[in-house]
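subagent[fold] <- orchestrator: predict structure for attached chain, return tokens only, no commentary.
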Amino acid sequence: MRVLNPHLEGLGTAVVFPGQGCQYVGMGATLAALAPVVADTLAEADEVLGLPLAAIIATGPPDRLSETAVAQPAILAVSVAMWRLLVQVCPEMRPVAAAGHSLGEYSALVASGSLDYADALRIVHLRGRIVEGALEPGTGAMVAILGLDRDTLVHLCAQAAQGRVLEPACWNAPGQGVVAGHADAVERLEACAREAGASTVVRLRVSAPFHTSLLSPAGAALGRALGAVRLRPPGFPVVQNVDASARSDPERIRAGLVAQVSRPVRWEECVRTLVDLGAVRVVEVGPGATLCGLVRRIDRRLSVVALDRFDWDALQP
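subagent[fold] -> orchestrator:
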């Protein structure tokens, strides 16, 4: 089969993979009914993990799907399933590069051939359990803040910390960041951000303060597990969150995955690196269309398409 939409292939296409928070009950259901490769990929995840992951993805309940140790492999499974379908219908597509937001980096590495799908499932399932158990419930929190520039947000973090951990966790787009740390410090930051003129201050429903130094012990535990996993040089560049660079050496990729747990996601810079590598269009592979929205905010010259929103009726034998 061939896709009739030119946005899914051609020179200058980069692929991006979303992270935790994009999950929803029923994600991938339309594609699973349309293409056996999608259903088979989800069934493979069930077998690898010994979990009814496909059933949880299909019918929930939502609270179960939102558990970090479930959401992470579920999102990866749906993302890889969409990638496999994309490769099937666009066999001539050769991405100039890929990137994934936080968890999505694992999906990008699977797509590039650097990481086996089964290994990725096991690692992200473990990653979810490690992160969930890293701190006592209620210790940490995360907040998304829109409408403030980077320097202002860094200054407010220093002001509100008062000896506690309070750090930028994601630089998602111009004027759009996420801060995480101890819950009391996050609460102080929320008030400071509103006083400073932030347009939006939203507390995120998460199990831990991701991408902060509070999770350094979790990163160390993940590093021990990753040490037993085989990584290969990727078949196309994968831009890593930790420094927005495209790494090819498996050991440097491994180190980037470990560091990512306790360091901020530099998504805005990752997208700019994709452009430097030749991207003129971005295809989001996975549930939702969050990354397409961020890409538009970062560089409006890029055309974007989300596979989860794509008209798959535009297929022909």
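orchestrator: received. Logging for downstream: The chain has a mean pLDDT of 93. The first helix runs from residue 29 to 34.
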